[in-house]
Amino acid sequence: MVFGSPGTLRAERGAAELRAGRPVVLRQEGSRIAVLALDAASPSIYEAFLAATDGDACLYLTPPRAAVLGLDAPQGALIPARARDHDSICRLGYMRGADAPAEWRAATPLMHEAAALARLALLLPAVLVAAIGEGPSLFDACAEVEPGDIQQGFSTAALDFREVARTPVPLKDIGDVVFTVFRGGFAQRDQLALIVGEPDFSGSVPVRVHSSCITGDLFGSLKCDCGDQLRGGLAKLKALGGGVLLYLDQEGRGTGIASKMRAYGFQHQGLDTVDADAELGFGGDERRYEAAVSILRQLGIGSVRLLTNNPAKIAYLRGSGIVVDERLSVEGEVTPQNEGYLRTKVNRSGHLMNVDALPRKDSDAAG
């Protein structure tokens, strides 16, 4: 299709509809399932969805959220929504302290598709689902999505970027850096490549793949080391004679800014970063790196010296045909506020760093 693959278009339209608080229809082999993202549904829309499905709607919980509630549901769980008001269903879907439901059943793989569509829309993966059959219904005007559409988008559109702007920007302590904007990808987000110095693209190029963190990068949050890694990464690229920093729009390890702030609230209550995301239904890391691979290829980079502590980035680039010749660490300071977070990254996410060997900032300086 000249305007994109059919599956990709359906998935992108479906994600936009969910984000707007409207239901979509998931179609498979003659059956239809209405889907509504709980995160975007107002109380009135929730009640209208229940009425339109004759009270047969269920809440789908992802495996991480189901495990939080003590349910043995490796495919996720379906909980009847009847007799639950909006506050009650939200508490069950993504809030702390919810009681395990007395009635539930194992979900089918099709429900995973519904939750994945919500994640694509940067919404929580708690979704309402209901079988609606083939007859006329209030959902006939809704966007339709088919199983496999999301995977089609990630295997095609996610790798399709084009350069739309390039200009030098002087940065403090770094000098002129060429900011290059790439547009495209699945669900169309602009991404940045910052070219530091004059790297030799014919050789192994120093590269930092950095995911956006508005709290750390922009506001100097002490809860994470992201700002340190951003500025330290740029400084290291300069010291190495030049390189490229890819700044990817995937806030909150790919969950979005709203989910990240919810997770921060749970961390404030004592959870670590992995458990906080599980409360919301997410896995430990929802980021993807198709954009990084596409942009590197467009820049003519096939071999990198990767500035990272994250072995998952190394594995993804290598699995996508990018040669990773060397890993270079990129580290920040330990503060009283981020020490637990750093240790969680090492102990639970496998990041490669020695927290005890990092420079420390005491409580007075950190405040």
Automatic annotation (TrEMBL):
Q: What EC numbers are recorded for this enzyme? A: 3.5.4.25
What cofactor does this protein call for? Zn(2+)
Which GO terms fall under biological process for this protein? riboflavin biosynthetic process
Give the pathway. Answer: Cofactor biosynthesis; riboflavin biosynthesis; 5-amino-6-(D-ribitylamino)uracil from GTP: step 1/4
Enumerate the UniProt keywords alphabetically: GTP-binding, Hydrolase, Metal-binding, Nucleotide-binding, Riboflavin biosynthesis, Zinc
**Which residues participate directly in catalysis?**
D285, R287
Q: Does the keyword Nucleotide-binding apply?
A: yes
Record's cofactor remark: Binds 1 zinc ion per subunit.
Locate the residues binding GTP.
R208, V209, H210, S211, S212, Q229, E251, G252, R253, T273, T308, K313
- InterPro entries, per database record: GTP_cyclohydro_II (IPR032677), RibA (IPR000926), RibA-like_sf (IPR036144)
What role does this protein play? Catalyzes the conversion of GTP to 2,5-diamino-6-ribosylamino-4(3H)-pyrimidinone 5'-phosphate (DARP), formate and pyrophosphate.
Name listed for the protein in its UniProt record: GTP cyclohydrolase-2
Q: What is the lineage of its organism?
A: Bacteria, Pseudomonadati, Pseudomonadota, Alphaproteobacteria, Hyphomicrobiales
